[in-house]
Amino acid sequence: MIIKENVQEETSIFKNVLNMFRRRKFEGNAGQAVKNSTYQLGQNLIFKFGSLFYTIILARILLPERMGLYSLTLATIILFSSFSDLGISNALIVFGAKCLKKKNFSKAKGYLKQLFLWKLTIVALTSFLLILFSYFISEIYYKKPIFYALLVGAIYLPIVSFVGFTESIFRTEENFKLPFIKEGILQIFRLFLVPSVLLFSLRFAPSDSFLVVLALLFLVVTYSVCLLFLLKNLRSKVSFLKYPATNLSKKEKKALKKFIIPLTTISMAGLFFGYIDTFMLGHYVAANYISFYSAALSLVGGAVGILSFLSISLMPIFAKNSKKGLDNIFKKANLLTWLLSFSAGLVTFLIARLIIQIVYGTPYLPSVPVLKWFSLLIFLMPIIGLYSTFLIAQKKTKELAFLTLGSSFLNILFNLFGIFFGLQIAGEMGAVFGAVGATILSRVIYLLGLFLTIRKIKKN
C-alpha cells in the first residue's frame, strides 16, 4: 500500500513538472524549485561530463604514475581550499535570501560586504599556509616530486575560491543561469587547453613534476577566465548590488558568526572526511596505486555531483519556507533522490568493468573492484547532501557540525586501521581497499546520524 502511494505521488510530481515546462510557467515555490533545479542539473551535467572527459583524456596522456601525482597534488590543494570557505558561501545564501524575501536589499548587500571581507582574509591566510607547508608535505610526508605543483596551488586556491563565492551571490537571488553559463565556459577551456599543452610538452620529454605544474598552471588560466565572466555580469544581473550596503549591527554580526562557526567545524571536519583517505594513501603507497583509487573515486564523484542537483538548488527555498511547506518540499525531494541514487548505484556496480575499460583503458583495470565497492557511495552521497542542505538552511548547523566532526574522527580511525592492516595483508592494493572500506563505513554512520537528527527536529 505504501509503495503504491509513493508511486502515485512520484507520477503526480513528474506530471506537474512536465506541465510547467510545457506551459513555460514556473510559479510559486514548486515552480521556482523546478527552475532552479533545471539550471543546477544542467550545470552539474556539464561539470561532471566535462570533468569526466577531462579526467579520461588526462589519465590516458599521463598514465597511472603521473596521473597519481596529479591526483595527489590536486587533492592536497583542495584539502587546503576547504579552509578558505568555512561556510561563508552557505551563510550568504541563507541570510541573503531571507533579506531579499523581505525586500531589504541594502541589508542583503551588507551581509555580502561583511562576508566578502571575512572571505578575503581567510583565503589569503590559507594560501600562505599552503606555501609554508608545501616542502614538508611533498618532500617529507609524501616523498613525491610535487613541491612546485603545490606552490602553483597557492595561486589556484584563491581563484577557485572566489569563483565559488561569486556563484553564491547569483544563487542568493536565485539566479542559477549565470553559474550554468560559467560552467560551460570552464569546461570548454579546460577540456581543450590543458590536454593540448600537455601533449605539446610531451614532445620534449619533460619530468613528471613539470607536467603536473603545467596542468595546474593552465587550470588557473581557465578559472581566471570564468571569474572575469562572473564579475562582468555581477552588477547588471544581481539587482540588490545596486543598493547601498547597510552595515551589520553587532547583534547581526554575532548571529552571523553563530551560524558560521559550526559551519567552520563542518568544513574543517569535512575536509578530513573527504580527503583523509587520499592524504593517508599518499604516504603509504606508490603514485600508480593512488591513481587506481582516484580513478574510481572520480567516476563516483561525477555521478554523485549530477544526482546532487536537488540539494544545491533547494537551499534558498528551504531557507525561506515555514514548517508545513518545508516538510512537503523535503518529502518529495527525498523520495526522488532515493530513487535516482539507488538506480545509479546499481547500474554502476553491474557494469563497473566496462566503465573502467572504456573510460580509462587497460592500464587502469585494477580500479574495477574499487569502483564496484564505491558504487555504494553513489547511493549514499546524494541523500547525505540533501539532508545536510536541509539542516544548514534551517540553521541547525550545531547539530550538523557535531555529526560531521564525529564521523570525520571515525573516518580517520577507520582509515588508519584499514590502510595499515590492508598493507600488512595484501600489500599496497590491500591498503587501497582498506581506505575504500573506511570511506564507505564512515558515510553510512554519517547518513544514519543525519536521518535521526532530522527525524528528531520534525517531532519537535
Explain what the structure shows.
The protein has 460 residues and is mainly α. The chain has one domain. It has helices at 2-23, 28-81, 88-101, 105-142, 147-172, 177-202, 208-237, 250-284, 287-307, 309-313, 315-320, 323-350, 352-359, 368-393, 397-459. Helix 14 packs across helix 15 (397-459). The longest helix is centred in the C-terminal third of the chain and has 63 residues, at 397-459.
* Total number of beta strands: 0
Largest sheet geometry: none
Beta-sheet strand percentage? under 5%
* Topology order in helix (H) and strand (E) letters: HHHHHHHHHHHHHHH
Silhouette = globular
List its traits:
460 residues; globular; mainly alpha
